[in-house]
Structures are given as structure tokens and as C-alpha cells.
Amino acid sequence: MKVRAIALNTFAGFLRNKLIVLFLAVFVGILLLFLTPLLAMKAMSGPAAAQMESPVLTLVGALMTMISGFGSLLAAWSAADTVADEMKSGTILAVMARPVRRWEFLLGKYLGVQLLMAVYVLFMFGFSYLLTWIGGERIQTTPWVLIAYPLVRYAIYSAISMFLVTMMHPVMAFGLVLVTSILTFMVSPGARPPAFLPGPLRAIVYTLLPSTELLSESRFLTITQTSLEKITWDVHAITLSYGLDYALVCFLLAVWSFRRRSLSRD
User: Fold this and answer.
1) Which residue in 51, 78, 117, 139 could disulfide with 154, CB within 3.0 to 4.6 Å?
2) CA dihedral 175, 128, 34, 41 (to 10 degrees)
3) How many C-beta neighbours within 10 Å does residue 201 have?
4) pLDDT in tens, 51-72
């Protein structure tokens, strides 16, 4: 009950957070700017419509990649900000006086972040179908894949951010998560090897960092009629289990670190 109350209060706090609301409003405004040319392309007919098909699909794919990437940043910042804000304002002392164990406090905060990201994923899911419909195509992927994969990926980033914020300022924690996401992309098998990372060191970094490229729903977001090789259930299970396990380890590290953290105001 205490964990659920903290989670719901955290989620409600996000809806009142001016910074998060401002970021979301600006982001939605950017999406609407891209939506206008898509609607204009949809209204075309005849040979012009056939010529515009490729640019439409390219624009849709770029938009969905941007939306998905923004979600990772939102998850990281929300997790860092919600813990740091409680400590900065001193309200964490009132919460702990109920009494609430420290791990319960962190778990409630973490679940509140996941509620926010679940709403974001549902928005992203609906928007992807809207965009592909405007582009005159349809998504071939099973719907649950487009929901489960980003949720697990956001769970990883929020857990890493929550772990880091128990030891440092939220801006620094967010910055390190951002650097982590960039390094993860740079050391992924399909990326060009960075010059400053020799082969053995790159293999170590790839092993330690989360393989979020495996948890990217973009590789399943098919907006053309081209059929992809079907991924079996055991591969889905292994991939998602890996992501959940990584998030769990990071969250347990956050709990361990938070036990030693002073609850007084910074």
C-alpha cells in the first residue's frame, strides 16, 4: 500500500512538473510541424502521390526514431529529478516518518516513473499507427512488441539514472546516462568502431553497458509491405529477460547506495 501510494503520488507529481510538461509541449509542437507536410502529402492524388510515397515513409521512420529516443531521455531525467527533488525540498523526511523503508521509497518512485513511461509508450504506439496510416501504409509488427520493448528499455535508463542520482546531482546523473546511451550506440555490433576504443576495450564496454539496441522497437516497426524474418518467442523472451535483469540489477544498486545516503537537504 505504501509503495503504491508513493508511485501514484510520483506520477501525479510528474503531471504538475512544469519542466516536464514544457518539454512534452515543445516536443508535441515539433511533431505537429512534421505532421502538416504528411497531411499535405496524403491529400495528393494521381502520379504525384506515388512520387511522394518514399519521402513519406522516410519521414515517418525518422519521426518514430526521434520519439523513441526522446523517451529514453525523459525516463532518465524523470527518475533523477523525482528522487533529488524530494531530498532537496526535505519532504523525504516526512515520507520516511510514516514509516517507510528506504527501498520502499525508491521502489515507489521507480514505479511512478514507469507509469509515466507507460503513458508515453501508449502515446508513441498510437502516434506510430497514425503516421503510418497518413503515409498510406500499415504496421506489420505484432502490437505487443511495440509496447514491451520500449518499456523495458526505458526501465533500464530510469534504473541507471536512479542509481546515479543517489550519489550525485541530478544534472550530472542525467549527463552520465546520456553519455552511456551514446557509448552504447557507438560500441554496438552494427556501428562504426570509435577510434579511441581499441578492440579489447570496446568488447569490455559493450559487455558492461546495456545492449539497448537489442531492445529498440524500431527494428520491428515495418511500414512497408516487405516481410521481415520472424523472431521466435524464445528470442523475444531472452531479449526482454536480459533487459529486465539489467534494470533490476541497477535498481538494486540504487537501493544499496541509497542506504548510505544522508537524507538531509543538499
Assistant:
1) 117
2) 160
3) 12
4) 444 565 666 667 777 888 888 9
Q: C-alpha distances in angstroms, 59 versus 41, 115, 142?
A: 11, 29, 22
In tens, the pLDDT along 125-173 reads 888 787 777 766 667 677 888 889 999 999 999 999 999 999 888 899 9
SS (H, E, C) the chain: CHHHHHHHHHHHHHHHCHHHHHHHHHHHHHHHHHHHHHHHHHCCCCHHHHHHHHHHHHHHHHHHHHHHHHHHHHHHHHHHHHHHHHHHHCHHHHHHCCCCCHHHHHHHHHHHHHHHHHHHHHHHHHHHHHHHHHCCCCCCCCHHHHHHHHHHHHHHHHHHHHHHHCCCCHHHHHHHHHHHHHHHHHCCCCCCCCCCCCHHHHHHHHHHCCCCCCCCHHHCCCCCCCCCCCCCHHHHHHHHHHHHHHHHHHHHHHHHHHCCCCCCCC
∠125-127-128 over CA atoms, to 5°? 65
